[in-house]
Amino acid sequence: MTDFQSNEVHLVFNHYPERYQKSLLTIRALIFDVASKTEDVGVITEMLKWGQPSYNRAIVLEPKNNLPIDELSICIEMALTYKLRKKR
Hints:
- There is one protein chain.
- The protein is mainly alpha-helical.
- The chain has a domain at about 5-65.
- About 55% of the residues lie in helices and about 5% in strands.
- It has helices at about 5-15, 20-35, 70-85, and strands spanning about 45-50, 50-55.
- It has a two-stranded antiparallel sheet with strand order 1-2.
- Helix 2 crosses helix 3.
- The longest helix has 20 residues, at about 20-35.
């Protein structure tokens, strides 16, 4: 798992209900994993916006369902590279 860049973000994750933490941490790890494998993305800045972890995009998921990892990976890559695609 990627270390938290800020103590504030770490505290927010720790305060989520336990039943959601695993999925949220999986998504967080996926964001950093996809970013590290995607050319020209650069460093991801993790911060809080309105008291929630922010990575510049929002995806709303039903916490009771299994995470759609393949689909999330595509969404994350597209979110991280949309400005790069505009330049091409």
